[in-house]
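Hi F.,

I've been meaning to write this up properly since the lab meeting, where we talked about keeping a consistent format for the predictions we share between groups. The idea is simple: the sequence comes first, exactly as it goes in, then the structure tokens exactly as they come out, then a line or two of notes. No screenshots and no reformatting. I'm using this chain as the first example so we have something concrete to point to.
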Amino acid sequence: MAVQCPALRVATLLTGLLECLGFAGVLFGWASLVFVFKSEHYFKDLCELNGTLMDNTTNNSTVQADCKAQDERFSLIFTLASFMNNFIIFPAGYLFDRFKTTVTRLIAIFLYTSATLTIAFTSADSALLLFLAMPMLTVGGILFLITNLQVGNLFGKHRSTIITLYNGAFDSSSTVFMLIKLLYEQGISLRASFLFLSVCSAWHIGRTFLLMPRGHIPYPLPPSYRYGLCSGNGSTEEKKMAELEKTEQQSREILSSEHEDPRPGQQQEPLSFWSYVFSRCFAWHLVWLSVIQLWHYLFIGTLNSLLTNLATGDRVLVSTYTNAFAITQSFGVLCAPWNGLLMDRLKQKYQKKVRKTDSSASTVDLCSTVPSLALTSLLCLGVAFCASVPVLSLQYFTFILQVVSRSFLYGGNAAFLTIAFPSEHFGKLYGLVMALSATVSLLQFPIFTLIKGPLQNNPFYVNVVLVLVTLVTFVHPFLVYRECHSQKESPSTAF
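Output, unedited:
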């Protein structure tokens, strides 16, 4: 295949990686940003001292104040923003499919710039604007990620590796808020940091028109495909792209029909989208994703409060552990490919058995997801257990387990949906499962309120219940394992 503008493709890859690493998933560095907000006395008027409300100007480090209402306010902001992080994927996918790359990226830039400017000009008196700014920042970041994932189509056999790498960069971008925190401690104001992020929008715009296509990057990639600086005549290129997308859709239909591999005497009946939605497989996968994701969101959203309690209000210790958490998050880009490597290795191993048995290729692919699903559940259980133990030094280990578990979670989710369900329904099923799991993630705020209120800041009973609920996620890999063995004897379409 003739490669057109190889330097442009490499530039697109590297700048896309930088964009995901620096902007896409900054929300998950929330603990670092909360530390700065508290230093700036955001929502400080909600803190109580001897039964009276404290004024924003109060700054007496020797006085222990009850700031559970302040923590609840920050938790609610993170809950709404993290909800939008997943829920928006479904409409964002439609937006990207309908209006394509350029329009989607311009919307992302507008939302992201508006959010960073809003945060830059907020103060303790206008802290309520964070309820608007943080969800906008999250949606803009997700749109950046969605438009960049197609870059993997430019590199053929390395497509999956690049997609996994971009998802890992999304996780690692939480380090940005740690850098803002470190700069703040060195005298750089919060406003200056977010104004810099706003100025970076000029770079996003330049990349949109010079290094990204107007439409979609097709897969498989045609030999004469051009985009960006190498696109030539715009109108002619758009017509070619429309034809390429039609050809791609036809080729996918042919490949999917060939992949079904109907057996003699067995009649293939196409199932509707809703038949997969109401299948046992989809239901248990939704439970698996929702429970594990809830744990991660609850841990990140309440980390500042957790560290403050374990450190008995020592701001230096809280700052140290917050930095440690942010640093471990930066390794998400390195952890993400491990899950894909595990499944690829297992797939190669199981493919050898296909020749000896009557198993289909789809059954082999499904079997390769079982260790990944089970390992992700095990890692989440480790996070849940360590986070429940009130020992401050143990949280270093919790941070490590959390970043590995989170990297495995989203890669494993996409891989399983790709393998277990038909490709023509992947986009809808992926968007639906993320939207439904986002609804479940809203439980993090009432859980946090329960701990701070009736349980008087003692999360023991809540942690015990959540650990038991985490054990339920092992049902999903068990059912998939049992299905793999049952398909060897009598193949089924869905379970």
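Notes:
The first strand starts at residue 48 and ends at 49.
The first helix runs from residue 6 to 24.

If this format works for you, I'll send the rest the same way.

G.
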